[in-house]
# Entry
Amino acid sequence: MDAAERFERLFRVEYPRLVRSLGVSFGEAAAADAVQDAFVSAELRWNRVGQLDDPAGWVRRVAINRLLNQRRDERRRQQILAEAGATVARSDVAVDSAAAVDLRQALLALPPRMRAAVVLHYLGDLGVADVAVAMDVSPGTVKSTLHDARAALRLVLEGARHA
# Structure
């Protein structure tokens, strides 16, 4: 199989899976854009990326970094506008405890990095080590993040049940 065929095969297998798993956390459109950008970057660097042990992991990491950077940039823009006295609607989705809580709402209540770890591990079916590589953190950090995320989700779900 030549390089172009390997890239095409990677794209066919990984693109839908990445968009689906990251879409839960960041929204379908944002995930699709980030994953598409990551694949474009991979194709431009395919001579190097194609030689990696896990080219899919490289694409996953690039897509996650793009999504997290977008969120960080949006928070910065909001902070600057708020400090300038502008009225800015909050972009973070808060869970309304009076409403029925679904998984997406509960996940959106988590900070972006925590949300990414949960989505990659539980919905993307990646092991702790793979999540660590994708997020560029240690496996211990992933375990701690997942523990904290479960605790936070438990609070959200219990709060909704008692409301």
